[in-house]
Amino acid sequence: RERERARELMLPALSRVAVCGGTHGNELSGVYLVHERLKRRKKSQVMEPVAVVTVMSNPRAVQRCVRYTETDLNRCFTHAILSASEQTSYELVRSQELNSLLGPKGSAEAMDLICDLHNTTANMGLCLITYSDSDWICLHICKYLQMATIPVRYIHYDIPRSEAYSLDSVGKHGFAMEIGPQPHGLIRANIFMAMQEAVQLLLDWVRLFNSGAQFEGGSVDVYTLVKNIDYPRDPHTHTIIAAVHPDLQDRDFCLLHPGDPMFLSFSGETLRYKGKEPLYPFFINESAYYEKAVALSLARRRKLFIPKKVIQT
Amino acid sequence: MLKDSLQSNVSACVSLQWRRMKPLISLNMELITLPALHRMAVCGGTHGNEMSGVFLVPELERQRKEKGDAIWPIPLTTVLSNPQAIKECKRYVDKDLNRCFTSAILSSPITDSTPYEVRRAQELNTLLGPKQTNDAIDMICDLHNTTANMGLSIICYSHTNWICLHIFKYLQAKITTVPVRLVLLNIPIGDAYSLESVSKYGISLEVGPQPQGVVRADIFNAMKEGVNAVLDWVKNFNSGEVIEGGDVEAFMFKKTVDYPRDPETKTPIAAVHPQLQDRDFCLLKRGDPMFLTFSGETVRYEEEEPLHPVFINEAAYYEKGIAFHLAQKQPWTIPSIQAKKV
Asked: Which intervals hold domain Succinylglutamate desuccinylase/Aspartoacylase catalytic (chain A) (predicted)?
């Protein structure tokens, strides 16, 4: 571990960065942040020290203020879908357009870093969600963002890059920046400001990194998804028969022990967590996940040590 | 930033009515006898993504199956008002169902191009009405959620709906888990556009804050408690006892305030200010912050008259051009009432 801490990393500069919003059309912090960035760029041709591409990912869904019009855009970036021919649905066509613009995924031309902006109805503060637990760029960014006013955490989905389905997987490095709680279809000023602050810190970090700054090594808590839990359902109709228990609601990242209350049925019974291992819940009661049969996700937490980082000149 | 809308017209009506009514308020109101309530309905999913009602209605049916009709003081019909919107988990499919119950819309001819919700409104009017006839059901209790921090709000659309106003008085005394408040509009019955106006004495229970498409256990329980309290009240009223009147505190809608918008694109350029967000029913005074623009400027309330904001940042109202309503807090005197035994 001492050797890891002392290790220095030489990594290439991040010369092309993309900030995407409205990947889900009703997650409004990102929609308005992208909107503002595009407006400001139109007004004054400010040269930013980093070339930042700002993208409204799903304009049709944004216009209708819905998550998606035909299919969830943020599930359309697997290699299989991107390389399929004759896509007809709006989001499938759009994912291929975005792949041309910001990718192609897996190639040398792809964006160095994609930050995709999202909101959740869950009480998650700010989370960076990625597919890797060894992407030192993402981990260092997470460490740097700890100075934000909102709690910042790192979530890892252990999925191989080719099967990675979200927009951020198109870049060489990427993450979803997820902020909650905010109901879909509306904008809360405090959440918008938190996202604005975080994006600013992110771009500050990229500028510092590119200019040769060194960053201290250290540790980051990484939450790795273990499993999703569905709502209890009626065996015949398949409709939900319980809500997340009041003792669990809003307690994202508080350790859930075997026997702890998980659901409260509409008729008043408590249903408890039957797993053997204490795990960390997140995405507790995300409205968009009802149709995906997810009431909450459960993660293992571990401390990851990240080496000092320098830029390759 | 006033929105020239139905609400402004409504508030003009209210002020006029108030000037006429004012002398009556100071008189000692006598006991009013009203017919006992014989049939009632509890409706959920009038907006398909307001989930407390969507789940409470089947739960009431489950209770009926398990324990029988005798658990309720009078025959109770449960209705999922907008099944297609519920299936799609949207507020509405073609048109807001809860704006489709005016006499004009209810009597309009059905053609191939008639919106889904207009047809459904006419079906509901047949099932629970017809509106403004003797056959109409005595009470509709319509269940709603809001993204605004409104606790349990009773919405009453007529200032002389004594049943609704008494129910509010009872709920406010009985329910301690959430704040209970009365929002009073005064819409003439022909113009009344919402589902509960189909019944003789309609009441709307609005519980928040809850995101659309989400069911929170605490909010569901508040709604359940509210409905159970309404049923208790009906039982007490029907028993023939005198229900004491008195003064209730009402929040009367006066006007609506829209978001500051870009003059060309019409998109909002500000969000509700953090110091106003979640502060429904508090007093907004001149100089208080109202909005925070995305570029960081504060927009303040400039009117002389301090008013109470309600429905602050309701997601469904963005498309209606409403950031919040402003209401005047008034005492409202309600008479004692007693059920007339038939």
From this structure: 15-204
- C-alpha radius of gyration, chain A, whole number: 20
pLDDT the model gives residue B11: 41
CA A232 to chain CA centroid, Å, is 27
Q: How many CA atoms lie within 13 A of B102 on its CB side?
A: 8
Distance CA B291, CA B281 (A): 17
Buried b (16+ CB within 10 A) or exposed e, A227-249: eebebbeeeeeeebbbbbbbebb
Catalytic annotation present for A48: no
Flag whether pLDDT at B308 surpasses 50. yes
Q: How confident is the model at residue B186 (pLDDT cuts 50, 70, 90)?
A: confident
**Neighboring chain A residues of B59 at a CB cutoff of 8 Å:** 266-267
Chain A closest-CA separation from residue B250 CA (Å): 28
Sign of the alpha-carbon dihedral angle for A184, B178, B78, B159: negative
Number of CB atoms found within 10 A of residue A16's CB: 18
- What's residue B322's pLDDT? 96
- Of A178, A269, A286, A291, the active-site residue reads A178
Contacts of A65 in chain B (CB under 8 A): 318-319
Give the containing element (helix H, strand E) for B184: strand B180-184
pLDDT of amino acid B190:
77
Compute the distance between CA of residue B328 and CA of residue A212 in angstroms, rounded to an integer.
Answer: 60
Residues B194, B204: Cα–Cα separation, whole Å: 9
Q: What integer best gives the mean pLDDT of chain B? A: 92
Q: Kindly determine whether residue A249 and residue B217, on different chains, have CB atoms separated by under 8 Å.
A: yes
Per-residue pLDDT tens digits for B18-60: 433 443 444 456 899 999 999 999 999 999 999 999 999 999 9
Tens digit of each residue's pLDDT (9 = 90 or more) over A206-258: 999 999 888 999 999 999 999 999 999 999 999 999 999 999 999 999 999 99
Residue B161: count of CB within 10 angstroms of its CB: 21
pLDDT for residue A50 is more than 80: no
Q: How far apart are CA B177 and CA B208, in angstroms?
A: 13
Backbone angles phi, psi at B218, to 5 degrees: -65, -40
Q: Which residues partner with A252 through β-bridges? A: none
Interface touch B59/A267, C-beta < 8 Å: yes
Residue-wise DSSP of A173-208: EEEEEEEES--TT---HHHHHHHHHHHHHHHHHHHH
